[in-house]
User: Fold this.
Amino acid sequence: MTPPSTESLGAHVEEGGTRFLIWAPRLTSLTLTIEGRGDMEMVPGPDGYFSLRVEGAKAGDRYGFALDEGFTPDPISRFQPDGPAGPSMIVDPSSFQWTDEGWPGAPPRHRQAVYEMHIGTFTRGGTWSSAIERLPELAALGVTTLEVMPIAEFAGRFGWGYDGVFLFAPFHAYGTPDDARAFINEAHRLGLAVILDVVYNHLGPVGNVLTRFSDWYFAEHETEWGRGFNVDGDHSAPVRQFMLANARHWVREYHFDGLRFDATQSIPDRSPEHIVNELTRCIRLDAGPRRLFVVAENESQDVAFLRGDDQAQGGIDALWNEDWHHAAVVSLAGNRQAYFTDYEGNAREFASMARWNFLYQGQWYSWQKQPRGTPSSDFPGSAFVSFLENHDQVANTGRGQRLHQVVNRAHWRAMVALLLLGPSLPMLFQGQECGTSSPFFYFADHETELAQIVRNGRLEFLSQFPSLTDPDIRDVIPDPADAATFCACKIDWAPSVAADQARRLHGDLLTRRQSDPVLSEIGTSSVRIASSAPAEGVVLLRYSGDAGERIVLVNLDREVLLRMNDPLLAPPRGYRWNVEWCSERAEYGGTGVRNLTEDGRWLLQAHCAWLLTIGVQQGQ
Assistant:
């Protein structure tokens, strides 16, 4: 038997009572226990499903199941107010008063400007309610979509969220389910879409109760974090139903505007329709006219998950472009260690990515000693998300430092311009827009033995960077299980001159990206993209559309006198190029904007970016 619908799993409030449905083929009988009501035997059905309607059971009641292992929460729990080991709570999502009627959903793909955030560290309060207070600033900045790191209930007081064990329950320390809904409701009022980072490649090491109910939830294959879900083996249909119910849960009951799939390379699936595509197709159908934005991380850079066209319901909208990040870090910091080994960070790489998207499309990748990537040039740049920072990459510095703290600030400003005016979708990591001084470490609140295992594993992972193997350095890498490590990551939003300069830089660029008639259409068929590297260290992007021509010129190196011997520098007949914007404006902390033209050539300041528009040639 398949459940009547994927939404029927778990506890659902109905008129006068609550209906419970669970898949538990490992058991021959199942006892439901509700606090204050005692034990009740559930009714067995075909294929291991058990159901029961309990008259008078209501939202707020706490419940679980009496198993041989002892009291066990509902694996489909919609809230764990006391954490993974405590009772589940009945939740009635229909009681929340939404005010987002008419919300169209996420903006079109090419209009996306993404902002990755971790609710526990985004503010000092570390809750949905405190995060709401900062939403107006993000809306004013020009962000369009918030990407919230995983929130599924996990063990401990703090963590990144990738060790979730109750996939339907928002982490209790961030607030109630209605607090999460209020955050999304307010974001929609301000014009911000919200997507959720979901983890379907493994569950956390503490608090997972799924195996108490079925031996078939997990496959034999191991990911680097644990066993993966059984999505294509024997008895996998109910497992896929469980995953579909979860994805639909977040879109329907919380009004999330899409999902970000974590580590899809670790979700092998031999089914006719890959589970990632099935999940995407189903939530799009559920959303109806509301536009969703679905993105994925795929370390091996497999474009098979991408939508072939705008009508493809089963394909995702965009993939993370790790190549762009790695080239940027090498350019900024000169870091050629570990997975940065195969990158030069030069102008040629960025010009290539503007045209081809990924750098590695099947070539040999010496760091992994195997080919990497798949051909990606058939997709627009808007099918890829680029970034200077994300949660992983900041934490992987060991000391959790932000790029602006360790590199030339002028170079950093130029790279921010290349990111925000480039052809791919830009993503910021929380606090990046104000040049935050707050680090971002790896943190996970585990008990003593597991905590030591996690710390050792973290140090082993970081040992791929030779600079982090020095004993003195390893001694100062914060302990993931120390609450002080977590607290240090809370963003310091205190005003400062440097913070205002960084915020103005990001805001001006995002505003131009959204409002300029050419830049705002990058990623559509109405704007053609050409790119080159006309001099060492110089990236040249030219956008041509019905609304005009734009050049983005970025000097990633020393001062250079640029000759006009690149066809992309030729203005339309009868016109000339005007400097519309420059990254070295004093209001951004720069040294000032110099005259670009000198004797028919352009004198490019070191580590500087420009946006050029066309103006009428004198005498015309």
Summary: The chain has three domains: 6-94, 109-205+236-512, 526-616.
